[in-house]
């Protein structure tokens, strides 16, 4: 007898047949005596279809109106899933974000949840109903429809679990858990039974697309027990995201390897090595609303220094343009970009207490003749930028070097 | 300087290109200094797509959840139209039924409007914005999404015009007005400049699909000036639906001819000719939620009588089944159905003051050898049931007989 929040992504509800399967799974939990709240995404492809439609009208769609349009994707799914449950004899009721209500700020297309009213959901749960909530959406104080940004349905799931003090938040997706790395790149990749929140945050932010990073932050903040599972397997316990570091002595130092092909590198060379130069370079980039990820500044020589950073690949041309417009001002010798790069990161809380992790990483790459272009470290991760063509090779040799292919 | 409510149907907003054209038309009215409230339907085909999706889950979709699903069609259109207006530099804001709010009862899939809150719309109009409202939908007192039934967007338009005391409610459709009859059947059919509300009600209820009947009733009740126009013509004044009968002496006695191929006839013969028999026959039919249209009971002979009525063609098999289950109880000699029939009606307020209209109709049909199976009359219309195969012929000869092809 527990209260479980389950979130199903777009692939899991991609067809009427799959929605019926979700209903069957929900029915099994219900039959076990659990209370179930289900959060669903739009059917796969639907959000993109709606965005394309909007872009046929406006190249840069008005954010308020875009939210009105794209929030319909989840609204359709909640109705369909409620029907599927009723068809199997289980009472259910659907809720849009506004009906719950999930109150957000007014930052259309990337709103943040401010509060959740649990009254209606509680009443339905007490009446034995399954509660179905549209993910990804909310309503602001003026009653405008808002959306939480791509992947926001995970955040809805975690936020509902927090508001309802649920025993567990289960994120159903098309993979059966969190892996040591992408099995498409390394067939020996293993599923992790547990991963810490901090590791998951690093994995998520580094391009492991299992969970949206905000939902992981949210779960950490509100102590929500989070589990990633496959919606296409009958059983399987998935990967549990834990708060405590594993006390298992045998736990490997590195838990996983994440990678990302979606960044590009910018080099700004020969800028004066003086205070404020980083701001002069990155200020205009931030003003242009371009996300900067890794930032490296080399030690200067002869009064000048070189400055490198990464941006989303799509934003490379725009970034170069922005920088060229301030090139004279920042007195840079050259500005160049490279989008044939990738980022590879090893992640693990064990790094805190183990030395030599970085040198093992660098040696392993060197032995394969892979040149490292940039390095960035945090307490529990080391990221490197290398030539895109080495991605698969680098991930495979690192996976082996850190013993991730061995059953623990 | 007037306040105009414009309603655009599914065909008028069927593609992004057409939505842009609607925005252009709205912009023209705005440029003339008018305040404009726009009501839109779902893009053509969208409601059917959503209903099919629902039926893949549940053969008889749960009404509450069906409304959650199908209301998204209009929600997408309001966002797109608001964007199209903003793209042409006109400030606009979209509203779902719930956001307005349009309060309805809780009769899902066929809700009735109870009240409309005009506060937000007024504020937007005062701020110079075009207000865009999703047709066909509302919200009940508990916050559940409701829909008004097929064609409900017309009703939304008229209801908003009434609530806002608009100067005119313009219904844009794919025809340029109300015709004396369907031009596809009679090429000589003429567009009417005006038609009375009563005539329009008869025309609408008899299968002339220009306007939804409830919206006409609503307009009559709240004295809303209603005009039917084409969304595909630049100019054109359409057909105005008036409250006063035309004082024009030359106005023909018959204003138009409506027809309907969607009914079937049921014959119940040899039932005891005693009080209560009509209720015993039609009670079970009503209980089965089957709409009955024309009802004829012949004068009885030898203590028994024959009873005929029409139902929607789709409901014929079900009606027969219902009646067979009570055949012994009502002591009927036979129960039979015929779905190869059609209904043809002549409509006109002039009938009130003119005699001989019925005999002209019957003579005209007789001259063509068309047998009349049933007759039903009201103050301003005469309907007959004839063999389906005579439909086009009957409409054509009646159109000519009543001088409807002559320019007035």
From TrEMBL, chains A, B:
Q: Which residues form the ACT domain?
A: 266-340, 346-408
Origin superkingdom: Bacteria
The annotated pathway is: Amino-acid biosynthesis; L-methionine biosynthesis via de novo pathway; L-homoserine from L-aspartate: step 1/3; Amino-acid biosynthesis; L-threonine biosynthesis; L-threonine from L-aspartate: step 1/5; Amino-acid biosynthesis; L-lysine biosynthesis via DAP pathway; (S)-tetrahydrodipicolinate from L-aspartate: step 1/4
Q: Known catalysed reaction(s)?
A: L-aspartate + ATP = 4-phospho-L-aspartate + ADP
The protein's Enzyme Commission number: 2.7.2.4
Please name the SUPFAM superfamilies in this protein's record: ACT-like, Carbamate kinase-like
InterPro entries, per the entry: AceGlu_kinase-like_sf (IPR036393), ACT-like_dom_sf (IPR045865), ACT_Aspartokinase (IPR054352), ACT_dom (IPR002912), AKii-LysC-BS (IPR041740), Asp/Glu/Uridylate_kinase (IPR001048), Asp_kin_monofn (IPR005260), Asp_kinase (IPR001341)
The record's listing under CDD domains reads: AAK_AKii-LysC-BS, ACT_AK-LysC-DapG-like_2, ACT_AKii-LysC-BS-like_1
**Key word Nucleotide-binding present in the record?**
yes
Keywords attached to this Swiss-Prot or TrEMBL record, sorted alphabetically, are: Amino-acid biosynthesis, ATP-binding, Kinase, Lysine biosynthesis, Nucleotide-binding, Transferase
Q: Which family does it belong to?
A: Belongs to the aspartokinase family.
Protein name listed in UniProt: Aspartokinase
Q: Which gene encodes it?
A: lysC
